[in-house]
Prior knowledge:
CATH superfamily of the largest domain in chain B: P-loop containing nucleotide triphosphate hydrolases
Subcellular location (chain B): Cytoplasm
Oligomer: heterodimer
Strand content of chain A: 5-15%
Largest sheet of chain A: 8 strands, mixed
CATH architecture of the largest domain in chain B: 3-Layer(aba) Sandwich
Distance between the termini of chain A: 11 Å
Mean pLDDT of chain B: 81
CATH superfamily of the largest domain in chain A: P-loop containing nucleotide triphosphate hydrolases
Low-confidence stretches of chain B: 300-307, 352-367, 434-450
Organism (chain B): Saliterribacillus persicus
Helix content of chain B: 55-70%
Largest interface: A-B, 48 and 50 residues
CATH class of the largest domain in chain B: Alpha Beta
Helix content of chain A: 40-55%
Shape of chain B: flat
Strand content of chain B: 5-15%
Structural class of chain B: alpha/beta
CATH topology of the largest domain in chain A: Rossmann fold
Region (Disordered) (chain B): 430-450
Strand order of the largest sheet of chain B: 3-2-4-1-5-6-7-8
Bound molecules: guanosine-5'-triphosphate, magnesium ion
Distance between the termini of chain B: 33 Å
Keywords (chain B): Cytoplasm, GTP-binding, Hydrolase, Nucleotide-binding, Ribonucleoprotein, RNA-binding, Signal recognition particle
Largest sheet of chain B: 8 strands, mixed
Shape of chain A: elongated
Main location (chain A): membrane
Order of helices and strands of chain A: HHHHHHHEHEHEHEHEHEHEEH
Structural class of chain A: alpha/beta
Number of strands of chain A: 8
Radius of gyration of chain B: 27 Å
Low-confidence stretches of chain A: 13-17
Order of helices and strands of chain B: HHHHHEHEHEHEHEHEHEEHHHHHHHHH
CATH architecture of the largest domain in chain A: 3-Layer(aba) Sandwich
CATH class of the largest domain in chain A: Alpha Beta
Number of strands of chain B: 8
Amino acid sequence: xxxxxxxxxxxxxxxxxxxxxxxxxxxxxxxxxxxxxxxxxxxxxxxxxxxxxxxxxxxxxxxxxxxxxxxxxxxxxxxxxxxxxxxxxxxxxxxxxxxxxxxxxxxxxxxxxxxxxxxxxxxxxxxxxxxxxxxxxxxxxxxxxxxxxxxxxxxxxxxxxxxxxxxxxxxxxxxxxxxxxxxxxxxxxxxxxxxxxxxxxxxxxxxxxxxxxxxxxxxxxxxxxxxxxxxxxxxxxxxxxxxxxxxxxxxxxxxxxxxxxxxxxxxxxxxxxxxxxxxxxxxxxxxxxxxxxxxxxxxxxxxxxxxxxxxxxxxxxxxxxxxxxxxxxxxxx
Amino acid sequence: xxxxxxxxxxxxxxxxxxxxxxxxxxxxxxxxxxxxxxxxxxxxxxxxxxxxxxxxxxxxxxxxxxxxxxxxxxxxxxxxxxxxxxxxxxxxxxxxxxxxxxxxxxxxxxxxxxxxxxxxxxxxxxxxxxxxxxxxxxxxxxxxxxxxxxxxxxxxxxxxxxxxxxxxxxxxxxxxxxxxxxxxxxxxxxxxxxxxxxxxxxxxxxxxxxxxxxxxxxxxxxxxxxxxxxxxxxxxxxxxxxxxxxxxxxxxxxxxxxxxxxxxxxxxxxxxxxxxxxxxxxxxxxxxxxxxxxxxxxxxxxxxxxxxxxxxxxxxxxxxxxxxxxxxxxxxxxxxxxxxxxxxxxxxxxxxxxxxxxxxxxxxxxxxxxxxxxxxxxxxxxxxxxxxxxxxxxxxxxxxxxxxxxxxxxxxxxxxxxxxxxxxxxxxxxxxxxxxxxxxxxxxxxxxxx
Lengths: 333, 450
Ligand SMILES: Nc1nc2c(ncn2[C@@H]2O[C@H](COP(=O)(O)OP(=O)(O)OP(=O)(O)O)[C@@H](O)[C@H]2O)c(=O)[nH]1
Ligand SMILES: [Mg+2]
């Protein structure tokens, strides 16, 4: 049985999975269409697997911001595979390509790692970090809404005391989703705000505290130190916390996202990624390399600016979404 | 693996060629392949890279590179020339309407930095051009966006026009421009909400604002970290609005910024300004040449050499050498030489141009303190002509006078005097050594204070 067929069977085994993958197919329609239809296109255009075919494939992957190194490695592996299996016809390539890509995507721990480390009967603290303008505050608003819908008591802490209007922005989200926001005045110490947030969340017996922080470029040493300090305050106040440190990455970002993931991890030990703005035309392919190189999984994807536009990242569903077009015209069907 | 600059990437091939003494077409092919990878790693769009590499290859296969004794450097030179040509010259002018106010409209994706850049531009217009701008808050969508602009307005003590979030952005823009007219403001900057280039409703809203206020400039604000998608974004905004220029933000980060090249290539619109920090004065004219070097990830060796040649006066250099040898080097000479180096551009640029400097730990974040150099200049300028010629005249009251004149503490004057004496000693030793080694031949360029 071909790999694609196996993948398909896996997804059609339960109805619930169908539903999940439909959501992905809709939300990520642009990513999915352009990616898998381009692979299909490629296969249609080239009959035989040759240098030109690989060069074009390289471009499809590069245009998704997958990154030069990952792409080169992938192409090398594919070439080896082609030799090993003595593949001549491009139609056989679909299967090989998807399998290799899935390999990278899944890693070893895909199933468990995309879930959030919630404390069942204690306060869960989630810290949000990232460069300027990626969508930290918006993601917090959306997540607060989602958690509240599922019956959790949520508190948010306005840890961005630097950017003009940042506190008001989070307050506005607080109003929108009816969640309390703990704040101090602009310019105050972010660690102190987070400390207040923890105190408030504890005394309210809240389930989850979402901590906003100011956007900062990862090469600013002082600002990264400030972030480490915020994290230390959380560690000191609640042993075992923060339970998640989520790095928000803008899907539009190119190769610099890797540097962001590395440096923010050094400073705050990032546990997961939120890939925002996937409703645009950018593919955010760099998360592949990040996952592969740094073992940081994607946990959420942002698909718009509304409260409901946040989806839990499901690697399997995501991959299924990526290859849905290919599955449809798989001749074995 | 970290980013490799083009120069590093070419090392391998260059080594190989060195042994052979003759450049083959295959060598050129290998080199252009490295050029391609370097550009892709820097986030230049793959289509743009393709066209670009083709051009480089054509030139490289010709005489220029293959006949050269230094093919690696020739390739770099060709690449840099093509890149600089593509990026265009310095174009940091803002249009001025002959019937004020001049209207500027800021557009772009979410989170690109439009609002901050609005504040920075306003600040620049006031500081550099002494103009009075009105800021218009037309982002009614993002929570607290108006508040953000109002806060910036307060920080700058500049008026902000807003009508809350219940009014259509087209009307807000129109009313804002009307008010600017009444108040005789010379500039209006309209901050619009971030939006996706594929959001037809919101793109249409921008077209309507454009129709309503007939802006003199439409600036597309783009995050310099943008990847391959930069071409789609730029193409869409340009097709629908016919933008007049681009502002690149967050260049204080460590991104290569290949998006700059992609955008220029697909829109052919000038990149006018660069945002280099979160503070409101951190905006500068965009330097295409510097950007080219940054994308290639290499010290700008060529322009360093060119600049040194342009700016160092041969005759003066000879005189200086003479003086150094006889230890008759004075503060006047010192000032003179400082001026020569200064002419080459800001010091951090010079450091940035040195190959490898951006790689050294600590160097990357190093900012040369121009202020300190200014202080040295001020101190020397506060000396009398006699004092400059003969530092031994210095006594307590003279030092005090100089310190006061320069607005620096006496201790700093003392430090400079001491350094100057040490420098003179060192120069004498150095020139003697050089003389001993290879006769009279001296170097044209010295940086005694570096
Ligand atoms: N289209 C789209 N826009 C988004 C998404 N997430 C956030 N945004 C928008 O991106 C812009 C920046 O988002 P913020 O949440 O303010 O980003 P931030 O990281 O908190 O920014 P700073 O606090 O300034 O560093 C806003 O206009 C958001 O509405 C998304 O998934 N899709
Ligand atoms: Mg924020």
